[in-house]
Amino acid sequence: MNYARLKIWFIITFTLAVAAIVIRSIWQIVSIPTAGTMLIFIPLILALLGADALFAYLVARPEKLKSRWFTTGVTVILTAGLLAGVTHFVRFIISPRADPFLSKVISALVLSSSVSAYSIIVYIVWSFRRTGKKNG
């Protein structure tokens, strides 16, 4: 992708979406300033900002996909996102709002798929970094 305007357009589009989610997350922290809310939303905000920076970097320099910085960055961002998801799951399961059994089943399925996707992505990213080619 060598088109500068198209690259800028991609970056702006993604950044606008991330900005909206980050603003809403900060609003949630301000409106309900509990330790549990902060434990969920602070890693989420960090993951979103990291994902936005990583996206902009990769759009600008796609040849850097094999760098150690990239693999470490992806791993840190995914870990922060997964940490927020697991924390939310644990807090949701014990809350009275999770009364219907189906809510607990759905949240367990979402958590299971998140952990599985995390494992697959980290494995692929690190094996791609190590070998220089895709696994599979």
User: Beta fraction of the residues?
Assistant: under 5%
Helix count from the secondary structure assignment = 4
Oligomer: single chain
Structural class: mainly alpha
Based on DSSP secondary structure assignment, what is the total number of beta strands? 0
Compressed to H and E, one letter per element, the order equals HHHH
Main beta-sheet strand count, sense and barrel state:
none
Distance between the first and last residues' Cα = 25 Å
Total tally of structural domains: 1
Could you say which overall geometry the principal axes of the C-alpha atoms support? globular
* Low-confidence segments: none
The amount of helix comes to over 70%
- Indicate the mean pLDDT: 79
Based on CA atoms alone, the radius of gyration comes out at 17 Å
What do these coordinates show?
The protein has helices at residues 4-31, 35-60, 68-93, 101-131. It has one domain (4-131). With 136 residues, the protein is mainly α. It is globular, with a radius of gyration of 17 Å. It contains 4 helices and no strands. The longest helix is centred in the last third of the chain and has 31 residues, at 101-131. Helix 1 runs antiparallel to helix 2 (35-60), helix 2 (35-60) packs antiparallel against helix 3 and helix 3 runs antiparallel to helix 4. Helices cover 82% and strands 0% of the residues.
